[in-house]
Design a protein that fits this description.
Layout: E1 7-13, H1 20-26, E2 32-37, H2 44-50, E3 54-57, H3 64-73, E4 79-82, E5 87-89, H4 91-101, E6 109-118, E7 121-122, E8 132-138, E9 142-143, E10 152-153, E11 159-171, H5 174-194, H6 201-218, H7 225-259
Parallel strand pairs: 1-2, 1-4, 2-3, 6-11
Antiparallel strand pairs: 4-8, 5-11, 6-7, 6-8, 9-10
Helix pairs in contact: 5-7, 6-7
Length: about 260
């Protein structure tokens, strides 16, 4: 019988000292852990090293997609599991991953269901569960170049769902969560602007209302109680910020070009 495949757990981090220990403990069974630090001012690199991770540094930021590509380039094993510092692998998910590693290497990729925390509640609806994400895959695949909302380029590989959940501490602190959402919205708008995308004021409001309606009604957010209603508003606000930022970039560019005439 052949020996099982070896696994590299890969993550990117910056100023995650409070989150990192539990994350790393949940993947301590992996053959190696690779952490790419993006210029932390806290003890993130030291904590990672104490947990046995191979730590690398990159102070230049070109977006989440390229940062994940760089982090993965340091991995030494044929299978990759990509994780974030605010995520934890549950025992059932660990067992499912280990079962895959006992199989021969193939082009299959594996998704898992995330349970997302919002204001003290792991959501069961609202589009936040099962929230399936592809995280386990062979090393010859990699993430795309998107600055935000990056994803794995699967090359049409078969996707298999793993048993067990990935816990995601999405919103532990509401203020920090809001700042992060705003940064995502700004990055999204700049990326779309450079791709030549534009939007009207009407589309700003139609997308905003659509996000609220989709979260609360179509995705049954009302079944998540008070948090479901609040999340519907938060998703609408995030959508408003994205499209307003895109509209503003085009408006400012047009005004500047007129001023130069």
């Amino acid at each position: 019988m052949s020996s099982r495949q070896q696994l590299s757990v890969v993550l990117i981090a910056r100023d995650a000292a409070d989150l990192l220990p539990e994350c790393l403990e949940s993947v301590s069974w992996a053959d190696e852990i690779v952490l790419l630090d993006s210029g932390s001012s806290d003890s993130t690199p030291q904590i990672a090293a104490r947990h046995g991770a191979r730590v690398f540094q990159s102070t230049e930021w070109h977006g989440y997609g390229k940062q994940r590509q760089l982090a993965q380039s340091y991995a030494r094993h044929p299978m990759i599991f990509m994780i974030d510092t605010d995520e934890r692998v549950t025992p059932p998910l660990r067992d499912a991953i280990l079962a895959v590693l006992e199989q021969p290497l193939s082009d299959k990729v594996y998704s898992c269901s995330r349970r997302n925390l919002f204001l003290g509640r792991f959501m069961r609806h609202s589009g936040w569960y099962p929230d399936r994400v592809i995280r386990l895959y062979p090393r010859h695949l990699s993430y795309n170049d998107n600055q935000v909302h990056e994803s794995l380029e699967t090359n049409n590989s078969q996707v298999t769902l793993l048993q067990g959940d990935l816990l995601h501490l999405t919103c532990r602190d509401f203020s920090s969560f809001q700042w992060k959402q705003f940064a995502y919205a700004e990055a999204w708008a700049k990326q779309r602007y450079h791709q030549g995308k534009r939007c009207s004021v009407f589309s700003v409001f139609s997308h905003t209302f659509g996000a609220f309606f989709k979260t609360l009604i179509l995705r049954a957010g009302f079944l998540d109680g008070k948090q479901g209603w609040l999340l519907a508003v938060v998703n609408a606000q995030y959508t408003f910020n994205k499209y307003t930022a895109l509209w503003a970039l085009h408006h400012s560019s047009h005004a500047s070009s007129k001023g130069r005439l």
